[in-house]
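2024-03-11 09:14:02 DEBUG pipeline.ingest accepted 1 chain
2024-03-11 09:14:02 DEBUG pipeline.ingest length=203
2024-03-11 09:14:03 DEBUG pipeline.predict start
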Amino acid sequence: MGAYSEHLRPRLHTFALKEKLTGEVRGRVCAGLSGDVLEIGIGSALNQPHLPPAVAGVWAVEPSATAIRLGAERRAASAIPVVIAGDDAQSLPFPDDRFDAALCTWVLCGIPDPGRALAEIARVLRPGGTLHFVEHGLAPDPRTVTWQRRGNRINRAIAGCVLDNDVASLLDASPLTVTRMSTFYEKGAPKPAGYMYEGSAVA
């Protein structure tokens, strides 16, 4: 990683996805998690305050050492232990059927091969285990899609992710089965970056 990607981008993510803006969504997405939970892209641990007491522990995958440092205080303040266990969601260092649940919030857009990451999540979830997710991605209206595709290059350079990730198609093509999904434009967000997919999928 370059200096910007390693040191500045994690701070940008923490600011852009801060509690004031995303806390309500995080609360909904984390609700119902229990047992051993895999978290893809834990970042600076912004989900940690929203984890329910039924979560026994979190095994986190995160490529940014700076993001992990930024989240140290949140992890320390939580009663739920966190193990930083890997740095690549496309190749998880866990055996099959290891986890009761998985959590993925605004992460798939920045993974080079999100389909491979979803296949890995399905592999390490026990049968019946559930992925809880919220992701931004491909909008339903052509005008917004045009702006998403125009903005991909600069957004990839600044935020490290694409704007037009087809989340629904990625999930449909994965070994997971979507059990609930709602889509909406996030209030106050620019439309090209603000179309959300929120829900759950079962292994």
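2024-03-11 09:14:41 DEBUG pipeline.report The chain has seven helices and seven strands.
2024-03-11 09:14:41 DEBUG pipeline.predict end
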